[in-house]
Specification:
The protein is α+β, with helices and mostly antiparallel strands and about 425 residues long. It folds into four domains: about 120 residues, no CATH class; about 90 residues, OB fold (Dihydrolipoamide Acetyltransferase, E2P), CATH 2.40.50; about 45 residues, no CATH class; about 120 residues, no CATH class. It is built from 13 helices and 13 strands. The strands form three sheets. A seven-stranded mixed sheet has the order 5-6-3-2-1-4-7. The chain has a four-stranded antiparallel sheet with strand order 8-9-10-13. Helix 1 runs antiparallel to helix 6, helix 2 crosses helix 4 and helix 3 packs across helix 4. The longest helix is centred in the first third of the chain and has 30 residues. Keywords: ATP-binding, Helicase, Hydrolase, Nucleotide-binding, Signal. It holds the Pfam family OB_NTP_bind. InterPro entries: DEAD-box_helicase_OB_fold.
Length: about 425
C-alpha cells in the first residue's frame, strides 16, 4: 500500500481487531492534515471548543479520535442535510470542507487497496468492534509505537520532576517533548494531577509526529492510551525480581520506632513474597508488576499476535489458523476492557465483552459454547473451564455490589497490576 510503514502497520492491526473505520480516518489525517481550522472570524476559542467536544465524545484526551468523530459527523450531515447541512456543520465546528473531502477520497483509495489485497471484504465487516473505544485507542498505540511518551506531572514523583507549566512527555527515545497548545491535551498534566491518576501509574500518550518549534520539540496530535497494548508490541521484554521492601521513614535513634519500622518492612516483604509477582520490563522503559503465571501467557499471546500479523502480510486472503484466530479474540477482549470504558459512548462492555464478535474479516464470529465471565472480564472460550483473567469457574454466580462490567476483576485477578515509567515498578 502507498503509505508509511507505520500507517500500514496500524491499518493491518485495525483490520485484524475489527476497528478499521475510525483508524482509517486517523491514518488519512496523519498522512494529510487535520480538518480543524481557525474560525473564519478569528475566534480561536470556537475551534478549540469544537475539537474538544469531538474528543470528549470519544472519551477525551485524543486529537486523533476528535478527527475521527468530526469526520463521522460530517458524513452524517452530508447524508441528512445535503450541501447546506454540510456547510452549516463545517462552520459550526470550524472544519475545512476541502480537507474533509480529501480525507474521504484517501479513505476510499485505502479501502480499495485493502480490499484488492484480500484483507477485507467490506468496511462494515472490518469495523465490527469499532464501538469499543479502549480497543481503538490500543490499536492507535500499537500502530504508532515507538512514538509514545510518558507524561511528566510536576510534583508527582522524582522521575516526573521538570514537567513545567506546559505538559511534557518523556519519550522512549529519551527525548522530552512538549504537547502543543493547540492540542486537546494541552492541559493533560493538570487533569492527571487533579484526578489523582498520576499517583496510580504513568499517563502514556501516543503521537504520530514531532515538530521543532523555535526552542522546543512539540507533538501536535496525540492520544492518551493504556500501557497494556504496548506489552504486546514492545521490541523486548525482560523479567526482574521485585525490589526488596524498604524501611518506612522513622527516627533511627528511637529504638522503639526502629523496631516498629523493621516489623512493618518484614510484613511488607512477606506480603510481597506471597503475591508471587515479578517485574516485567518493556524495552528497558516501562515496568509492570505481573503475577508469575501471567508471564508465560503474555509471552504466548505476543508470539501468536506476531504470527497472525505475519500471516496476514504474507497471505492476506487466507483464513487464519484456529490458534491465531483465538489469539486475536483474546487480544481484542483484553484491550477492549483494559482500564474500563474510555468514555460514556464506549461500547467495550457490550460490543465485545457481552456480545461476542461480529462476522466478517476484522470481526470474530462467536463460537457455540463461548461464555461470559460473570465478573465482567469478557468472553471466555468454550474450551476453557475458568476465566482467563480472574480464574472464576464457569457457571459460578457472582453477587454484585456496585462493580462495573468491563473494568477488571477483583479477588483473584490475573491482569498486570501496575505500570511505571523509567523509575520503577508501580501500581495502577
Amino acid at each position: 500500500m502507498p503509505v508509511h510503514p507505520r500507517v500500514g502497520k496500524m491499518l493491518l492491526y485495525a483490520t485484524l481487531l475489527g476497528v478499521l473505520d475510525p483508524v482509517l480516518t486517523v491514518a488519512c489525517a496523519a498522512a494529510y492534515r487535520s480538518p480543524f481550522v481557525m474560525a473564519m472570524d478569528g475566534n480561536r476559542e470556537a475551534g478549540k471548543l469544537a475539537r474538544q467536544g469531538f474528543s470528549n465524545e470519544a472519551g477525551g484526551a485524543s486529537d486523533h479520535l476528535a478527527v475521527s468523530r468530526a469526520f463521522a459527523g460530517w458524513e452524517t450531515s452530508r447524508a441528512n442535510g445535503g450541501s447546506s447541512g454540510e456547510r452549516a456543520f463545517n462552520q459550526r465546528n470550524s472544519l475545512s470542507g476541502a480537507t474533509l473531502n480529501m480525507l474521504r477520497g484517501m479513505r476510499s483509495q485505502l479501502l480499495t487497496a485493502l480490499s484488492g489485497r484480500g484483507l477485507i471484504h467490506d468496511l462494515r465487516g472490518a469495523s465490527a468492534n469499532a464501538g469499543a473505544g479502549s480497543l481503538v485507542r490500543a490499536v492507535l498505540a500499537v500502530g504508532m509505537y515507538p512514538l509514545v511518551g510518558r507524561l511528566l506531572v510536576p510534583g508527582v514523583g522524582a522521575n516526573n520532576a521538570g514537567g513545567g507549566r506546559t505538559p511534557t512527555l518523556a519519550t522512549l527515545r529519551g527525548e522530552k517533548v512538549k504537547i502543543h497548545p493547540h492540542s486537546v491535551n494541552a492541559k493533560l498534566h493538570d487533569a492527571a494531577r487533579s484526578s489523582g491518576v498520576a499517583d496510580k501509574g504513568p499517563t502514556l500518550v501516543c503521537f504520530d509526529d514531532v515538530t521543532r518549534g523555535e526552542a522546543q520539540l512539540y507533538v501536535r496530535e496525540c492520544t492518551a492510551v493504556s500501557a497494556a497494548s504496548l506489552v504486546l508490541v514492545a521490541s523486548s521484554l525482560t523479567v526482574e525480581a521485585l525490589p526488596p521492601a524498604r524501611l518506612p521513614p522513622h527516627d533511627p535513634e528511637d529504638a522503639a520506632a526502629a523496631a516498629e519500622a523493621m516489623m512493618e518492612r518484614d510484613l511488607a516483604q512477606a506480603a510481597q513474597d506471597a503475591a508471587n509477582e515479578a517485574v516485567l520490563v518493556c524495552d528497558d522503559w516501562l515496568k509492570f508488576r505481573v503475577p508469575l503465571p501471567v508471564l508465560s501467557q503474555l509471552a504466548c499471546l505476543r508470539i501468536r499476535l506476531a504470527r497472525a500479523f505475519a500471516a496476514k502480510v504474507q497471505r492476506p486472503a487466507d483464513a487464519l489458523a484456529p490458534d491465531l484466530a483465538e489469539a486475536l479474540r483474546a487480544t481484542a477482549t483484553l484491550l477492549a476492557h483494559d482500564g474500563g470504558a474510555a468514555g460514556a459512548g464506549d461500547l467495550a462492555g457490550g460490543a465485545i465483552g457481552a456480545g461476542g464478535y461480529g462476522g466478517g474479516i476484522g470481526g470474530f464470529g462467536g463460537r457455540e459454547g463461548d461464555w461470559q465471565c460473570p465478573r465482567g472480564c469478557g468472553v471466555v472460550f468454550a474450551s476453557k473451564s475458568s476465566c482467563f483473567r480472574c480464574g472464576i469457574e464457569k457457571g459460578a454466580v457472582v453477587h454484585r455490589g456496585g462493580r462495573g462490567g468491563g473494568g477488571g476483576c477483583g479477588g483473584g485477578g490475573r491482569s498486570a497490576r501496575g505500570a511505571a515509567g523509567e523509575g520503577g515498578a508501580g501500581r495502577r
